[in-house]
Amino acid sequence: MNQHRSDLHALAAAYALDALDEAERKDFDAHLRACEACRQEAAEFRATTARLAAAVAQPPPPAAKAQVLAAIEGVRQLPPRTPAPGTAPALVGVLRRRAVPLALAASVAAAALGGVAVWQTQNGRDLEQQARQAQRQLDAVSAVLAAPDARTAHGKAANGALTTVVSSARQNRAVFTAAGLPAPGTGKTYQLWLDHDGTMRPAGLIDHDGTVPLTGDPAGAGAVGLTLEPAGGSSQPTTAPLLLMALPA
Q1: Residue ranges per domain, the chain?
Q2: What is the 3-state secondary structure (H, E, C) of the chain?
């Protein structure tokens, strides 16, 4: 396999997810021995992807298990699908390059299972709407993670929350993850900001552990901020920042 050095740098995310074929893995293993930056990036992708996948997962409703088990006896088992000759290599290549979105999709799929048997009820319609919202969020997150130029930065807020920002200049997007975020309190929410040369511009809300795409335009922003604001957010920060961390370059 003939890989340019710049191509090898772009394989850190797929390597972290064990999504490379044998030849690519051997090439990247050899590359890692000489590249400290890729060793660190691969480790960060492992930690970040696990955190993002957990953050977008949705717990199934309590009655979902019983409903699925009750309905499964009436579902006829279908034979396995066999891919047409000649399609497997192309499919493997596509799946490998989509490794990060698929890893995140697994957590959403597990949550969606609970709604399959009850989508004909109002509860099912609510679950379907939630699944669509989760899918849109997943698409936005995975587009950043799958970008060849994705870069990661980690931080810790003043309230103890662990934070991660992944950004892509090519996508002109960034996503924010919080873990261990204390409840904001009644009538409060956490608000994200993009710092453009000292001007704080609203970049979305987050009120519990999870992952959100940053709204607004990260191009030209130097940092991401986090403050505690009244429910619904503010046009400008009204409290001291809990976090102000540089966007990953």
Answers
A1: 5-70+88-145, 151-246
A2: CCCCHHHHHCCHHHHHCCCCCHHHHHHHHHHHCCCHHHHHHHHHHHHHHHHHHHHHCCCCCCCHHHHHHHHHCCCCCCCCCCCCCCCHHHHHHHHHHCHHHHHHHHHHHHHHHCCHHHCCCHHHHHHHHHHHHHHHHHHHHHHHHCCCCCEEEEEECCCCCEEEEEEECCCCEEEEEEECCCCCCCCEEEEEEEEECCEEEEEEEECCCEEEECCCCCCCCCEEEEEEEECCCCCCCCCCCCEEEECCC
